[in-house]
Specification:
The chain is an alpha+beta fold and about 130 residues long. The chain is built from four helices and five strands, in the order αβααββββα. It has helices spanning about 5-15, 25-40, 40-60, 120-125; strands at about 20-25, 65-70, 75-80, 95-100, 105-110. A five-stranded mixed β-sheet has the order 1-5-4-3-2.
């Protein structure tokens, strides 16, 4: 069963309300839609949204370590996390961001491989 429009709207609202996080509204809409194509089970999708909000909050509070990117992405950081927290589940989600003072400027987030490679999608769209 595909992800409902209500779940997508809920995702936009939830992610946009994370404190000290700034993201282009169009990019946010694109990312929640792409995530709905990657995780077509609504329960999995909603879990990914909850974990995305949690990850963004932890980034904003300086509670997690991220990887510095190189080359054309220099100056950006990548944080890897699980769409659903479970033992043995790979970190299949990514957030691409940089710090701007006290704020987290998010370039995008999404599934590592689906609907396409995350970093390719970030390069081509933004």
């Amino acid at each position: 069963m595909p992800v409902s429009g209500g779940a997508v709207r809920d995702a936009v609202v939830a992610i946009s309300q994370v404190e000290n996080v700034r993201m282009d509204p169009n990019a946010l809409a694109e990312d929640v839609l792409a995530l709905s194509r990657a995780l077509t089970d609504e329960r999995e999708y909603r879990a990914a949204v909850v974990n995305t909000c949690r990850a963004l909050d932890q980034i904003a509070r300086g509670k997690v370590q991220s990887s510095a990117l190189k080359y054309e992405r220099e100056g950006w950081l990548s944080y890897h996390y699980q769409h659903a927290v479970a033992q043995g589940v790979n970190a299949d989600m990514r957030i691409l961001y940089r710090m701007e003072g006290e704020k987290v400027a998010v370039r995008g987030f999404g599934h590592r491989d689906t609907p396409e490679d995350f970093y390719v999608r970030m390069s081509s769209l933004r």
